[in-house]
User: Fold this.
Amino acid sequence: MSDAAQPTAAEVRAAAEAVKVALDRHLAAVERRTGEDDPAVSEAFNALATAAEAYDERLYDLYDEVTPFEIPGTDDSLPPYAGPEEPNALSVLIRRDYAVAEPRRLLAQAQRIADVDGDAETVAVVGASVHAAVGVLFGEYEPDEIASRHKEFGLEEGDSTLWVSAADDLPEPGEWLGAPFEQADPQQVVCRFDVSSVFDDEDFDSAGIRGRDPLGDLEEQDA
Assistant:
């Protein structure tokens, strides 16, 4: 930032005062909260986050200093729950990312499975193709087993997330198979659990797992 665009000391102090006001309003809203999803608390939280971010930016721009706290962003938060209070059906959506850290190990494991299977066509296809090897591994093992044994398969864990969403009725057989993730609605999510190394230095539990339960019975789970 150029000198001309830098905030003044008075602007930095005004931003600090705005944080103090926002803190007081947030505490007052929490003290008066009427339930788990009280909109007044959410509004006060967002106002506090905005004020803290503005102060942090001005403090850094003028003094090259930062605050010792971070306000979680809202990009990964869920909107207010709008699904049925008594769901008759549930959908579990899971995403797990892996890096192919050791291609040779992955190929060797897939080759071993193909050899045991004895299908000459499968054995020939695996060869040196990581693409084919992945198909063999995921065709042989359940996703949860691959998650627990990923290192054996030459894979390195990335981020993962699990969403449990509610519905009034179970979809008809085959109804969503053409686009299984297209209709994922964050407002129908009953609870959500995320795992990421980005949480390691933040105020989360030791497993880096977060849960969100808009029905009021949140239970954080251990990895």
